[in-house]
Automatic annotation (TrEMBL):
Domain called Radical SAM core: residue spans: 28-269
Organism lineage: Bacteria, Pseudomonadati, Pseudomonadota, Alphaproteobacteria, Rhodospirillales
Gene3D superfamilies, A to Z: Aldolase class I
Cofactors (names): [4Fe-4S] cluster
Protein name, per record: FeMo cofactor biosynthesis protein NifB
Species for this entry: Phaeospirillum tilakii
PROSITE patterns referenced in this protein's UniProt entry, alphabetically: RADICAL_SAM (PS51918)
Length: 293
């Protein structure tokens, strides 16, 4: 049986303050998050991911347009006017948040203007270890690292290429580098006092029987929570099935042997604004801004 979430939260200070680090129904319905789409580029290729600018699709990697770093504080201020329960500013794309310096510059400005907001960074982890000090210095308290496999052969099937310090790597060398950097990055963030959640995109036939190994490995590195995100079939994985409810439940049970499992993910857009799954104010927030296309 599952332990009571209240009793098992590894970070009770975030319960009710960060919707995606809360375990109770009340906890993730009582505070909001703003996703600021400031990060344009990515340094790896995930075969399920197609970044896009539009108003309609509700999925990660999509935003109405980019927000410039020097507009970030103004967008946060307007978002707080629209949705005063926002307690978290997250940067989750539309590309990788550490591939360019936009996210850390935006976070530093936001942290100076709104020191009580929780800054939350999502990354693929390729550059997390080497940027861990500036990440924490920019006021980031919670970090989400997407780790889809810790077996290089599987990882190479999911993200076949990376660009690392100007070099393009493919196949197993790319996967080995990415995995090693993700684990080192989680260790470094935790050593500096950050809280780490791992997102794993659950891809039937690829990593659905591998999530326990992922959970065990990232738990040993210091991660506190795992979020198994069901694949939204798309891009090069358009013909793969989404996980069934039974596959999702089994994977969650296997991951739960090692980590607290977050199971309320709404697979949000990179410009979401409000309480995940309940409210979204992004249309009003960006009403004066044309969609970029
Ligand atoms: Fe897309 Fe994120 Fe993968 Fe980059 S790391 S390709 S933005 S899913
Ligand atoms: Fe939270 Fe999931 Fe939305 Fe990220 S994508 S803000 S983890 S609900």
């Amino acid at each position: 049986g599952q332990r009571r979430p209240e009793a098992s939260s590894p970070f009770p200070q975030l319960e009710g303050r960060h919707p995606c680090f809360s375990l109770t129904a009340e906890g993730h319905a009582s505070s909001g998050r703003l996703h600021l789409p400031v990060s344009p580029a990515c340094n790896i290729t995930c075969r399920f991911c197609r970044r896009d600018f539009n108003r309609d699709e509700w999925r990660p990697g999509v935003a109405r347009g980019l927000v410039a770093v020097d507009q970030a504080v103004d967008v946060v201020r307007r978002a707080l006017d629209l949705c005063p329960t926002i307690s978290v500013v997250g940067i989750a794309g539309p590309g990788d948040t550490l591939c360019t310096d936009h996210a850390l510059r935006a976070f530093a400005l936001i942290h100076a203007a709104f020191p009580d907001l929780i800054n939350c960074l999502s990354t693929n982890g390729l550059l997390l270890a080497e940027k861990a000090e500036p990440v924490i210095a920019a006021g980031v308290g919670t970090v989400t690292v997407t780790v889809n496999a810790v077996d290089p052969a599987l990882q190479a099937e999911i993200s076949p290429t990376i660009t690392y310090h100007g070099r393009r790597l493919t196949g197993l060398p790319a996967a080995e580098r990415l995995i090693a950097n993700q684990i080192a990055g989680i260790r470094r963030i935790v050593a500096l006092g950050g809280v780490v959640k791992v997102n794993t995109v659950l891809i039937p036939g690829l990593n659905d029987r591998h999530v326990e190994t992922v959970a065990r490995t990232v738990a040993a590195a210091g991660a506190s929570m795992i979020n198994l995100i069901p694949l939204l079939p798309g891009h090069e994985f358009a013909d793969r099935p989404a996980p069934t409810a039974a596959q999702q439940a089994r994977a969650q049970a296997e991951a739960a042997r090692h980590l607290t499992v977050f199971s309320h993910c709404s697979r949000c857009r990179a410009d979401a604004c409000g309480i995940p799954g309940l409210t979204d104010y992004a249309d009003a927030l960006y009403a004066a801004r044309p969609a970029q296309d």
